[in-house]
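Shipment paperwork, digital attachment
Item: protein structure file
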Amino acid sequence: MQLKNTTSQYGGVTKFFHWIIFLFFVNQYIVARVMVNLGSGEAFIGFNGNNLYNWHKSIGLILLALALLRYTWRRTTRLPDWDSSLENWEKKAIHWIENALYFCMIAMPISGYFFVMAGGFGVDFFGQWQMPNPIGTNEGLALLSEWTHIILGWAILIAVALHLFIGIRQSVVHKKGYLRRMLPFTSQ
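Attachment content:
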C-alpha cells in the first residue's frame, strides 16, 4: 500500500487518519455514555467514574492532535478524483459533510477542554500529569462549552450517518466498490 493519495485511490496515511479518528470517536461515545450513567462507587471493566472521565478527557486531547494532523495532511496532499458514478448532489453533499466533520473533529475536543477547565474539573492526563488551567473557572463559559460539546456530539452522529448513507448508496446502486477506496488494507 502506498502512503500518498493518487488520482484513483486514497493512500495509507489518509486511511490511517480516517480510521484511527473514527475508532477514537467510537471509544469516546462509548466511554461518555458509560461515565455519565455510572453510579457512585460503580465501576466499568475496572474503571471507576473518575478514571473514565480522565480517560475521556485524555483521549479527547489526543483526538484533537490527530484531527489537526489529519487536517494538515488533507490540505497539503491531493485527493483522488471524484468517482465517475457520483451525481452532482452527492459531490456537494460529500463536500458539505467533509467540512462539517473536520469542523466537529476539531471543535468537539476544544469544547470539551473549555468545559472541563472552565468548570474547574481539570485534566489529569492519563493519571500522569495534571494539566495547568490557563482559563480559570468560569461558570458561564463552562455551561456554554458543555452545551456546545453535546450539540457537536449530535452533529457528528448526523454527519457520519449521512457519510455512511452516501457510501452505502453508491455501493448498492452503482455496485462499483466505492467504499473500497477508504477501507483499510485495500486498493482499488
